[in-house]
Write a structure and sequence with these properties.
3 domains; 8 helices
Length: about 150
């Protein structure tokens, strides 16, 4: 794919970062990891990423909002999104602030995910309810009660 020597110049590092950002938003940490995999040194990559932040082309806030929007529309809840964003290097305070914003109606999204997976409604037996609860927890909706 990329040779170790391809990302030795600042221009090459910036071009590679811009190519990645053209596809989708990335967090700072995610982009740093990808640039390092492509052969950039940590120090050189951080300098270019700081420039991208300064230019407004790289933003953890924008990444966080876009990520939460996209994943919540696919039926994932705040518990799972919090963990996924943590793994992508987004600051915990930013994640909490974005999740708490009034943009997302988590109970409605939980009901939608539940109804899509279980159109028959809440199970009548304990085993079925446990299965439904595990599904909702896996999706990131802790404490969800159907019905």
């Amino acid at each position: 794919m990329f040779s170790r020597t391809q990302l030795e110049t600042p221009a090459a590092i910036r071009r590679s970062a811009m190519d990645l950002l053209a596809r989708r938003e990335h967090s700072y940490a995610e982009l740093l990891r990808k640039l390092r995999q492509r052969g950039a040194t940590t120090a050189a990559a951080e300098i270019e990423l700081d420039r991208l932040v300064y230019d407004g082309l790289l933003s953890d806030e924008r990444f966080c909002e876009a990520y939460i929007h996209a994943r919540s529309q696919r039926g994932y809840g705040p518990v799972r999104l919090r963990e996924e964003l943590r793994q992508r290097g987004v600051a915990e305070s930013l994640v909490e602030e974005t999740l708490a914003a009034g943009e997302w109606d988590w109970p409605a999204l939980a009901r939608k995910a539940f109804c899509k997976r279980f159109p028959e409604g809440q199970a009548s037996d304990a085993l079925g309810r446990a299965k439904q609860q595990r599904f909702m927890q896996y999706r990131g909706f802790s404490g969800f009660q159907a019905g």
